[in-house]
Fold:
Amino acid sequence: MNTYALETENVTKTYQSESGVINAVDEVSLQVKPGEFVALVGPSGSGKTTMLSILAALLKPTSGKVILDGQDLAAMNEVDRVAMRRNKIGFTFQANNLVPYLSAVENVELMLRLNGRLDKTGKIRSRELLARLGLAERLHNLPGQMSGGQQQRVAIARAMIHNPSLVLADEPTASLDTERAYQVVETFAGLIHEQNRAGIMVTHDLRMCEYVDRVLQMRDGKLVQIYSTKSEIMELVKGKHD
Structure:
């Protein structure tokens, strides 16, 4: 029995440029277990955002496999990939992308509505999840009436409300101050562990790695280093690794 929620095998994404072929992602193989929160880090242009887009089924790799819940996303046609993305993947963006004219709870319910799963139970779960994220008093506020940290927590709730197998976050703290950033990532990590989801966060801020279980470092499209123990991760957070 496969113990991984997500597994990639030699994933490569190439682009043609005037100077030749560019490997934005170069034979990356990784595994993430249910309940494991992983950070994907690296300098600008390292391939981490492209890799996240491939894992989110937003981008098809040139070659390799992306296996989620035993199914290869890379081998699917576009219709099946869209269905997989909608049902099995949760995604939070740097800009959170909340619908400005919907309240916090309506933004969360929207994910269930799109999946045809917005029933009484779903409405109750939406409110409970927002309350779990400290937003019980903000259920009916519009995004413009909430702070950046509160908006990001709404986005996290929206990404997790449909019980996805994989939750992805693209620079979720980029627009937040340090205190709010720590709160958001700590909360995100707690939900990943409690709900037994596989979670991957792309971040440029190594301080946020304090809350993850492993750190995967990319450079020039390749996976070059894995930090697997808490001591290794904390040394990275404190700047003791290159």
Summary: Helices lie at 48-55, 78-88, 104-114, 120-132, 148-160, 178-195, 230-237.
